[in-house]
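[scheduler] slot 2 assigned
[scheduler] job type: sequence-to-structure, two independent chains
[scheduler] chain ordering preserved from manifest
[runner] begin chain α
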Amino acid sequence: MATTNLVWVGTTLSSVYLLKLTLLSDFSINCPTYYIASSLSVSGQKVWKEVFNAGSQKHGGTAPFFTTDPDAAGVNTTLANIMKDRLLSFAVHNDPNAQAWSGVDALIWPTYGETGEVMETNDTQITIVMDTEYDKSERCKFFSEHGEVVQN
């Protein structure tokens, strides 16, 4: 049986724990979302992809970003309005860009496709980045091409 060497390209982690965390994140979240978004996009389905890098990064970590209560600690009202507008617009129109109720100007969220454009939201800004910065990576390519090795 041939051995496969995997190098986590660009990984600057100094501890084994963080390296394992990156491996698990890629395997269970980052790469599957890339595979799903790519497959749906190729089949003609409209797909919008976002990387949310704000707050605690825990499950449900987006909840504080949906409040516009000025008394809430650390609230970013602009971001909260944009996120609420996009969520409601998607629910009503199946398009996160179709309607904004808050009146806040927001960057148009491009559909994911051949260009690989992804919305990135962090604590201070919303930008468009290429998917190669997150999911469409050599690491995901490894999982895709070596399924028999990964399963064992």
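[runner] end chain α
[runner] begin chain β
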Amino acid sequence: MTSTAPRLLIAAALAATFTVFAAQSFTQGSSMPAPELHAQHLSQRAEKPSVTPAERQAKMQQRRAERQAALKAKLNITTEQEPAWNAFVARTAPAAQVNRHTERQDGAKLATPQRLHKMQARQAERAAAMTSRINATRSFYSALRPDQKKLFDTQSQAQMQRTGMHNKHRRGDHSPMAPRS
């Protein structure tokens, strides 16, 4: 019985210490930052150069070109497959970005039936673009050898998981092995 008493004292001392630290961190976390820290933060944000949409678009195109070059190298595209590859790359290129801010402002001026008509038209455009990408992928896939098809399958599945297909990013679930609800 004497061996449990020191353990209880140690546990009580640790619990009291954790309680004090937890209370201090809670009160510090809930307080507002000092005005000078807030001003410093705002000045740092003002100094940080913003990226223009054109710069962002150029960077996305560069990353896409790098991913395509890596895929082409992994697949070992032959000279006979080169036309199919070029058609695949051209037909799966993303459409030019539109200014969503201007589009929202223009939509706010419309009556509800007109806004709904525009939404329906955009949905039809997106569906047509998706059908075009699917057909281009099928056409390219048919030009591949069996070993290339297997590699393409694994690469496209990994890309779908990275880009958040299957609603994984919307749910906050980034793990490909996490159970679906």
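[runner] end chain β
[qc] chain β: The two ends are 50 Å apart (CA to CA).
[scheduler] slot 2 released
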